[in-house]
Amino acid sequence: MELWFTEQQTPDLGFTCKITKTIYTAKTQYQDLAILETKQFGRMLVLDGAVQTTIADEFCYHELISHVPLFTHPNPKKVAVIGGGDGGVIREILKHDEVEKAYLIEIDREVIEASKKYLPEISCALDDERAEVVITDGIKFVSENKNMFDVIIVDSTDPVGPAVGLFQDSFYKAVFECLKEDGLFVAQTESPFYDQDLIKNVFHAVKSIFPITRLYLGFIPTYPSGLWSFTLGSKKYDPLEVDISKIKRIDTKYYNPELHKALFALPTFVQEIIK
Ligand code: AG3
């Protein structure tokens, strides 16, 4: 018998994968969690029915959300990830030698535990001595800590359920305060094809708080429409002013220095969204 998993990406569109095994399912305190073995993408983490990451394409998302901010900041020593319990962003952050400490601020302990057990390729750096896991609400953490980080990366789920607050103006204000005086942050901000209002609202909210606000795009095959956006807010450093000849070569499959600025070149319909 064939088994298929479908994420209902919009009320009128599904993304369907053939699965060979349901590896693990749980109802956590915050969400429904599943680890599936798919034919096309290998093991897949699903939260509340939405694909979070897969072994085959996780590098696209994790590299894009990590290396753009980290290579924009000249000396990122203290970095925080809000969400991202699978550990993929932490793994990428720790490829940067100057990083002294990377904090994972995750609300749902069970995401971390399931990822450690079933997605070791992604979660492998969580036990690194430079990584520190804090189980708490990201909004609370960011509000309670001031002037602490060089870079903050918001690796949230979609703006429904536990992540709603991570897309609100008050959260971006708290992120601003939580960053050092020359700090910067990046948040994943969904698909420019399906989530135009969200991108517009986030962009303008960030722009009203941070001196520099930029949107960049990447391709993530398993996410709605494949085309994905990231919003960067910075107090001082502009990703478009980076001297790319000084970017160190690290082991990546998507990110490279030549792409660093090119990612910010937007299709006309995306320029329109943030105008
Ligand atoms: N966080 C962003 C996932 C958004 C996907 N949305 C969807 N499938 N509807 C991914 C976490 C990876 N560390």
Describe the fold and architecture.
By secondary structure, this protein is α/β, with parallel strands linked by helices. The chain folds into two domains: 3-54, Roll (Spermidine Synthase, Chain: A, domain 2), CATH 2.30.140; 58-274, Rossmann fold, CATH 3.40.50. The chain has helices at 58-70, 88-93, 109-118, 120-123, 138-144, 169-178, 196-207, 257-262, 268-274; strands at residues 3-10, 13-27, 32-38, 42-47, 50-54, 78-83, 101-106, 131-135, 149-155, 179-188, 212-219, 227-234. The strands form two sheets. The chain has a seven-stranded mixed β-sheet, with helices on both faces. Strands 1-2-3-4-5 form a five-stranded antiparallel β-sheet. Bound molecules: 1-{4-[(3-aminopropyl)amino]butyl}guanidine. 1-{4-[(3-aminopropyl)amino]butyl}guanidine binds next to strand 5.
Q: Features of this protein?
A:
275 residues, alpha/beta, Spermidine Synthase, Chain: A, domain 2, Rossmann fold, 2 domains, 7-stranded mixed beta sheet, 5-stranded antiparallel beta sheet, 27% helix, binds 1-{4-[(3-aminopropyl)amino]butyl}guanidine
Principal-axis shape equals: globular
The whole-number mean of residue pLDDT values reads: 98
Number of helices: 9
Briefly note the CATH topology name of the largest domain.
Rossmann fold
User: Which class do the helix and strand fractions yield?
Assistant: alpha/beta
Rg measurement, Å: 18 Å
Helix/strand order, N-terminal first: EEEEEHEHEHHEHEHEHEEHH
